């Protein structure tokens, strides 16, 4: 029994309990909705954390990759610089060697030309003397006078020459040819030690 605006209203206990249940039902639903919202927010927050951690890991990997690439580039630059310096040094050495060889070749060419000129001049001068024969960069002279070995050598040395030293078979055959098979003195003697034959330049006789 309730009094409302001066009126006495009768409500049963069942009505009161029913209203209470309705209120409780609404409150429980609101509580459930609130919990669901918090759970959903919690789930969304966890997903964002995973994405953030993934992004950070990707950034760290990218930074490490950049560091590795930069290190590799620096190492390659150092190696390239060292190789370049070595190549430059080697090229400089080769250039110096080439210049030395070029200078040496020039000197040898000049010496060759000088020797050729001297040979031609000597050949021209000796060509004016009767009896001289030129062969393989040497001049030969066979005297028609009969002399001993000592007299023949003195005759040669007085004219700035010496008795012939035969160095090979070809030269021996040439001497036999120009002498016409006649006996001639050569620059071989055992005057110092009998039986020990030496050429007039001091070299020993060989079997070649």
TrEMBL record:
Residues 77-125 form a coiled coil. Keywords: Coiled coil, Disulfide bond, Glycoprotein, Lectin, Membrane, Transmembrane, Transmembrane helix. The chain crosses the membrane at residues 57-80. InterPro entries: C-type_lectin-like (IPR001304), C-type_lectin-like/link_sf (IPR016186), C-type_Lectin_Domain_Fam1 (IPR052309), CTDL_fold (IPR016187). It holds the Pfam family Lectin_C. Residues 135-208 form the C-type lectin domain. One of its GO terms (molecular function) is carbohydrate binding. This is C-type lectin domain family 4 member K-like. The gene is LOC113075334.
